[in-house]
Fold:
Amino acid sequence: MIGLISATAAGAAACDRLAAAWPDRTRRYPGPVADAVRAAFAECEQLVCFLATGATVRLLAPLLRDKREDPGVVCVDEARRHAVALLGGHAGGANALADQVAEQFPGCRPVVTTATDATGVPGLDTLGWPVEGAVAAVSRAMLDGSPVRLVSDAVHPLPALPPNVAADADGAVSLLVSDLAVEPDAGQAVLRPPTVTVGVGASRGASAEEVLTLIESALAAAGLSPRSLAALATVEAKAGEPGLVAAAERLGVPLRAHPAAALAEIPVPNPSRAPQDAVGTPSVAEAAALREAGPGADLLVPKRKSEPAPGAAAMATCAVARRRPRGRLAVVGLGPGARDLLTPRARDELRRASVLVGLDQYVAQVRDLLRPGTRVLESGLGAEEERARTAVAQARAGHAVALIGSGDAGVYAMASPALAEASADIDVVGVPGVTAALAAAALLGAPLGHDHVSISLSDLHTPWEVIARRVAAAAAADLVVTFYNPRSRGRDWQLPKALGLLAEHRAPDTPVGVVRNASRPGERVHLTTLGALDPADVDMMTVVTVGNTATRAVAGRMVTPRGYRWQEARA
Ligand code: SAH
Structure:
């Protein structure tokens, strides 16, 4: 629960606003502020105080106990220009809350002062990879901007590191990224990339101790750090073998099961009869290690057997593979324009990347969100294929890449040319965005309430005959139609032609919505009809949504009935 506290009329109005926006998350604390702060501090996980920071600090001071347990506190000034994360930035969630509060008041800015968030430097412990050695000293140097030498045995898909962290930096501290079992030097932190996979086989009843001893000795033989272990892998028939399950649990990694038929197809140096007869593949340990590690993996330790107790038979086998570090391509839709229609997930992916690829005007839209040190590869209109190739090439080189597009990046945009180029040796993540048709529909009313289709009128890459055929089919099928790329200076006859095809099946009074720059500066929403639409009102910043035969204008809004019988019955 978020406790809301205010002392003045303006503050009370602001509390009303938050309470209305977040009815289930907020509780008002009226009355004298000292009592209100004390009560809210005891009862809520977070507080928003419409009070000066000084007053809030004095009221909070006697209440503070432990930074892991105290609530997060955000202070907002009387004019609602600043939302200050005052207390509990990380653990109390005040940094994130300051962002959310600021979004509720036009012109209000979040003020965040904790070091990692303020400077955009990724905390070494926030990457999801184990880290050891001089973590505090290296983090401090990263934040202070003093040189940190980066030592890496390969390109790993890390987020952007600040410019003071570099291979040629000359300083007292260094950051090593490696899966090798080296002891950190003084002043060195080591990040452990998850590159090691261990394939394991076991006879029924093999003990976890026997499996663990075997794995430890195999990793030691290859000089690999157990902290870089990504997974244990075995054949499906052994997925429930208690010794394997317990070993994976103790190592803190998943136990992945592969089908015998898939393992049988992996070429290995040491196939044998016994597993073929028992589980249907000539190799379990080697094949599972390699398959789990993926394309381009190396087998570093071939199959070895556990040391049996005197007089007993060996019960377990293992083999170790190392994956080629896999680059990461995030295809990110930025939404139609407004910052609050950019999803939190898209924002996270922009900050997860070290390389950003996109059209210059979209890059400008999000530049302030990027971490310092992000490499930006921007290009102009028309360079789509080159952008797609660049993004894929950067990911194949091992980097974490974000390829951006407006609206949804998969709708008449970069996702398809990029994925047509992409190979199986990179990870691909898609982040959906609010596409222009949806942004426009929300402004128009409810035009997409029944079956609908989007059609691009750009005949640069699609022959006009194909476009016309699709428009005619949509007309005959009585689909609501949204036209993208409807009209540009050099392409002015396509829109009237397309509207003409629709008019063969729809009355002249069919509602048509024309939305220019949805959720961007210069936004314009115009509701007209098929008969009255002036194509001169339409340009490349516009989408045009034509209703079906049931679409009506209601109170100035475009409404397509859902067509359910109960609605007809009521009407
Ligand atoms: N990927 C984008 C579409 C790219 S095609 C998306 O999902 O929205 C470019 C066309 O999209 C423009 O010619 C225009 O028709 C439409 N468009 C994109 N953004 C728009 C906006 N904010 N307002 C109105 N139309 C927009």
Residues 336-337, 405-408, 411-413, 435-436, 439-440, 484-486, 515-520, 540-543 surround S-adenosyl-L-homocysteine (CB under 6 Å). The mean pLDDT is 92.
